[in-house]
Specification:
Protein name: Cell envelope-related transcriptional attenuator domain-containing protein
Number of strands: 14
Helix content: 40-55%
Structural class: alpha+beta
Number of domains: 2
CATH topology of the largest domain: Aminopeptidase
InterPro entries: LytR/CpsA/Psr_CW_biosynth (IPR050922), LytR_CpsA_psr (IPR004474)
Order of helices and strands: HHHEEEEEHHEHEEEEHHHEHHEEEH
Keywords: Membrane, Transmembrane, Transmembrane helix
Strand content: 15-25%
CATH superfamily of the largest domain: LCP protein
Family: Belongs to the LytR/CpsA/Psr (LCP) family.
Organism: Liquorilactobacillus satsumensis DSM 16230 = JCM 12392
Oligomer: single chain
Strand order of the largest sheet: 11-6-1-2-3-12
Number of helices: 12
Shape: globular
Radius of gyration: 26 Å
CATH class of the largest domain: Alpha Beta
């Protein structure tokens, strides 16, 4: 009995002596749990994408359902050490994370647009025009605003990449499997050794170098620019499938942390990207969840006020555009 009393006394003395330490550990643990819950709340796709701001829009108030947002993806021909570039491709992506549904709309780069103080030109020239006047960063932002106004759609995020960035992105995920929709002959490759190479329609496991060669091609594919847009969509889908594969989940943090290598300009934060990754990390099925749309228009030779000559330009069917934006964005 005496032995038992001594043990209890020693235990009591030990606890009393280290009470501050135990309290400190308990407080630290609670703070860690609270911090974890706060981080999860910030990253949780169900709450992260609520009440988002828009880059620009004609309307003073824009209602967007919770968990939905629009991203303008721009592929430019900007080279290293350049401060401006022309837009080679444009995709408007509507994401509904609640329904796990994604709509991708291709916008023809030769679409005719009117710019205040500049006149009529093609969408491909908008970025170069604004960057020449306002600088690289502000020029890209103004280009996004102009395209948002032109399409009459709210844009929450924008991402601009170029050849180097796109290749780095595909390389970071270890290459992709790409479903090439039709035969592609490389008539204007980045690398001379790839000239006249034929890539047949179907699924191919491709390196970053070959993916960027394929999505650059336009002259040998059906519909030229429209065909190139389909190739770019197929490549983006391949990247999405690779990232959403649970076996590749460990690559996402590295991909996000090195995002500066892939993007020329963006207003999307790393937490935005991680949250999107969490939403798509499993059960991603492109055939069921992704819808592709292509804007149509009339190819016409018209005077371009910026280029100061006549050019082939596409006049979009505004009724079709309005219907798509109303239903899908």
């Amino acid at each position: 009995m005496q032995q038992r009393k001594k043990e209890l006394q020693r235990t009591h003395q030990f606890l009393h002596k280290h009470a501050a330490l135990w309290c400190g550990l308990l407080v630290t643990l609670l703070l860690m749990v609270a911090a974890g819950m706060l981080v999860w709340h910030q990253l949780n796709p169900k709450t992260h994408f609520n009440n988002l701001k828009t880059v620009a829009h004609n309307h003073t108030q824009v209602h967007q359902a919770k968990g939905t947002f629009n991203i303008l993806v721009i592929g430019s021909d900007e080279r290293k050490n350049q401060v401006s570039g022309h837009t080679d491709s444009m995709l408007l992506v509507h994401a509904d994370l609640t329904k796990k549904h994604y709509t991708i709309m291709s916008i023809p780069r030769d679409s005719r647009i009117y710019l205040n103080n500049f006149g009529y030109t093609k969408l491909t020239s908008v970025q170069a025009v604004y960057q020449a006047k306002y600088g690289a960063k502000q020029g890209a932002f103004r280009a996004v605003q102009a395209i948002s106004s032109y399409l009459d759609v709210p844009v929450n995020y924008y991402l601009e990449t170029n050849y180097t960035g796109f290749r780095s992105m595909v390389h970071a995920v270890g290459g992709i499997t790409m479903n090439v929709p039709f035969n592609v002959t490389l008539t204007h490759p980045w690398y001379a050794e790839d000239y006249n190479k034929l890539i047949t329609a179907g699924n191919h496991k491709l390196t970053a170098k070959m993916v960027t060669e394929i999505v650059h091609e336009r002259d040998s594919v059906p519909g030229t620019d429209f065909g190139r847009q389909r190739l770019q969509e197929a490549a983006l889908l391949g990247i999405g499938n690779k990232i959403s594969d649970p076996l590749n989940a460990f690559k996402v943090p590295a991909l996000v942390s090195s995002i500066s290598q892939f993007l020329v300009a963006t207003n999307m934060s790393k937490t935005d990207m991680i949250s999107i990754g969490l939403a798509m990390k499993s059960n991603f099925n492109a055939k069921k969840q992704v819808r592709y749309l292509q804007l149509q228009g009339k190819d016409t030779v018209l005077y371009d006020d910026v280029l100061q000559n006549y050019n082939d330009e596409i006049v979009l069917e505004r009724s079709q555009l309005h219907k798509i934006i109303t239903q899908d964005f």
